[in-house]
Amino acid sequence: xxxxxxxxxxxxxxxxxxxxxxxxxxxxxxxxxxxxxxxxxxxxxxxxxxxxxxxxxxxxxxxxxxxxxxxxxxxxxxxxxxxxxxxxxxxxxxxxxxxxxxxxxxxxxxxxxxxxxxxxxxxxxxxxxxxxxxxxxxxxxxxxxxxxxxxxxxxxxxxxxxxxxxxxxxxxxxxxxxxxxxxxxxxxxxxxxxxxxxxxxxxxxxxxxxxxxxxxxxxxxxxxxxxxxxxxxxxxxxxxxxxxxxxxxxxxxxxxxxxxxxxxxxxxxxxxxxxxxxxxxxxxxxxxxxxxxxxx
Length: 296
Description:
CATH class of the largest domain: Mainly Alpha
Mean pLDDT: 87
Number of helices: 13
Structural class: mainly alpha
CATH topology of the largest domain: MetI-like fold
Number of domains: 2
Strand content: under 5%
Low-confidence stretches: none
CATH architecture of the largest domain: Orthogonal Bundle
Radius of gyration: 25 Å
């Protein structure tokens, strides 16, 4: 009888321990490859350098220096402005595409989704290199415009400029906006849209009062993806921007590699990480609010 009494207790213990054991590899992965490096970077940001040597003495000088250097603030402001512009551009381009795939594609839906995802199968360096071939003074775009007689000399601003950086970032992150938007729009029942139209709501009012609010979670998730990745982007600005205006990630790389000031670079990285975490915290609040309004 005592063994039978212990059996339910042991079963309850197994139901608790088995999920915990399944989460253990994930927790170890996060500890080793995320929390530990972030902790080391945070600690390094309070060190100092002397004659290119690391001195493990606690100081806030790195953060004070960052706040006192206008060039760093200009690069951070440029990164934020670029990320916001790319996010807005991706939202404008992604919404009609996601709506088309979700509601109008029919049997072509799977093929279109594959076409959206396909760029991720190619290295980002190769994709950016292709844009350099397209946007250069002797690239396909300039040569085509000159052959059509639309311009008499190639546009020099297409490559190695903020324009080329934004084009590359929009191209890179547009799929990250389309996919969550597609999922949100796909969950909007056609009967809800039809009910609004039956109540004499026109297409514009139906979109503004029904479709747009119901797709808000997808809009927020896509915006977070584009903004966070755009804020810390390095490869695209380095290859397409030409180094004329350095974004914040490029300044961080410069601190580590050229100036060999690791504590200063670590402090900048901590500031960038704080911005990303703040964005994620705000987005979670917005997503919960949008999801609550959708459910209600």
